[in-house]
Amino acid sequence: MRLVPLLETERLRLRGPDIADMPAVIAYWATDRSVYEGGPRNPNGAYEDYTSSFACWLVRGYGCWALEERVSGSFLGIAGVFHPNWVIEPDLGWTLLAEAEGKGYAHEAALAARDWVYRNTEIASLTSNINRENARSIRLAARLGATPDEDAPDADDETIIYRHISQADYLKGAA
């Protein structure tokens, strides 16, 4: 039984977690690159974050995918819908390793994740919760067509909420 559906895009395989990803995950969380996700973290914290990214599949029926380059099989990061209990609305997010940035992988993965979620769940709206200083993710949210929603319940002094196209409009072909 597969809990995390396998998706493939032109360049990516979106799959479930693999223990072989852990060295790259631990290395990522040890750097200042992880600051926008609450890092840096020690190896135990990195493991906890990685595994919790996939736990939503068990309790909510949707969640995150590990990103793998189809040609090389290299682990690139994670993307999908984060929805821990402290986040009010489902959060379409992405975290890439340094070597994967700037190649359009996060955009490609976010589009695939959004498509799967809107076609396979009852989620009416997705947000992207982004640290106000995270310029790269802000640009990506805008590229995905999301717009700032300062009145969203999860907005605060550090976080700007980007609201994506609604499920209803997406399924009508407005994306």
Structure description:
The protein has 175 residues and is an alpha+beta fold. It has helices spanning 22-29, 43-59, 105-120, 135-143, 167-171; strands at residues 7-8, 12-15, 64-69, 75-82, 91-96, 127-131, 147-148, 159-163. α1 (22-29) packs across α2 (43-59). The longest helix is centred in the N-terminal third of the chain and has 17 residues, at 43-59. It is globular. The model has no long low-confidence stretch (mean pLDDT 93).
In short:
With about 180 residues, the chain is α+β, with helices and mostly antiparallel strands. About 30% of the residues lie in helices and about 20% in strands.
Topology:
Blueprint: E1 7-8, E2 12-15, H1 22-29, H2 43-59, E3 64-69, E4 75-82, E5 91-96, H3 105-120, E6 127-131, H4 135-143, E7 147-148, E8 159-163, H5 167-171
Antiparallel strand pairs: 1-2, 2-3, 3-4, 4-5, 6-8, 7-8
> Can you tell me the residue ranges where pLDDT is under 50 for at least 5 consecutive residues?
none
What is the overall shape? globular
Determine the strand fraction and express it as a percent band: 15-25%
- The secondary structure category is alpha+beta
Relative helix content: 25-40%
Helix count, DSSP H or I runs of 4 or more residues: 5
Largest sheet: 5 strands, antiparallel
* Rounded radius of gyration (Å): 15 Å
Spatial strand arrangement across the major sheet? 1-2-3-4-5
State the oligomer.
single chain
Q: Taking all residues together, what is the mean pLDDT?
A: 93
How many β-strand stretches? 8
The succession of helices and strands, N to C, reads EEHHEEEHEHEEH
- Please report the distance between the alpha carbons of the first and last residues: 32 Å
